[in-house]
Amino acid sequence: MSYKRTITITKVFISFTTKTKSELKDKMYATMINYWSWWWEVDNESDELARMLLTISVLIFAVLWYKWTRSFTHNRLPPGPFGLPIFGYLPFLNNQLHEKFTEMAHKYGPIFSLRLGSKFHVVVNSIDLAKVVARELDHTFANRSPPVTALTITYGALDIAWSNNNAYWRNMRKLLVSQVLSNANLDACQGFRTNEVRKTISNVYARIGTPVDINEVAFDTELNVVTSMLWGCSSNISGDFFRGFREVEFKIIELLAAPNISDFIPMLSWFDLQGRNREMQKQRVHLDRILDSIIKDRIETNSRKMEGAVKEDGRKDFLQIMLELKDASTSFDIVQIKALLFVRSS
């Protein structure tokens, strides 16, 4: 009797469980039907078009996500953390990048990879690997991925710092090293550098007992030395001409170093959500005003057959070399000259 009772109770329990599961499935099915009924119950053509576009968007996103995950997992890539769709590992970073990268290096090894937005990054954290990247594989890793603000201030990466490793970059680098940074040119500037430092020391000494902005003094001294090599106008143009140049230069450097979501998700660059590019365009207007005036003055001087571009020791400044190159080549223009002058002055 006890055995039969056990069988009966088991059958009743199984029947109750089956009935409960069936009812639960029916409720879930009814809930899904009610929840997603808007998907296929449309009242007009606008709703039907919206449904079609949403369906296509979901399918495209699913296909792209599938391809992205397959390429990330099947390629022979360095180990690294997984991130979120679209944003990658960006939400997990903080302003202490060196500490975060050190922590990740302890976990993943001396070389690891991560995605920041839609861009893939590889981080090396050892001296040996850094030598491989910077020396042995220099041509492979020489190209840049400029920030949006850098492209704006350099007229589309026409300078040396952000340009890709191509024939243009190699020619400009050769010209800079041979004409501006050559030993003969640097030796010729030694007297001027000495005079500028002595002048600065005298000015500071004369202001004993009054507050002195060392940043301002150092910037002015460096500006006079550099501009003498670039366009030789340190003694020809008054200090009023460079009024505000210091603030513009500092603002440009600040914008170049500031994080910008458009650099990590390029499709958002059209919206400029943080306003970095708009602000950089304003700074370029100020910089253009200074450089245009300097170039115009030099062209007028050359047209009057004056030797203003040639120093007493026979040395030509960088601007004069660029203008002569422009006259000799149709592929070199004023915009490229301004891009090179900006990088050298900064």
Automatic annotation (TrEMBL):
It holds the Pfam family p450. Gene3D superfamilies: Cytochrome P450 (1.10.630.10). GO terms for molecular function: heme binding; iron ion binding; monooxygenase activity; oxidoreductase activity, acting on paired donors, with incorporation or reduction of molecular oxygen. PANTHER family: FLAVONOID 3',5'-HYDROXYLASE-LIKE ISOFORM X1 (PTHR47951:SF7), OS08G0547900 PROTEIN (PTHR47951). This is Cytochrome P450. The lineage of its organism: Eukaryota, Viridiplantae, Streptophyta, Embryophyta, Tracheophyta.
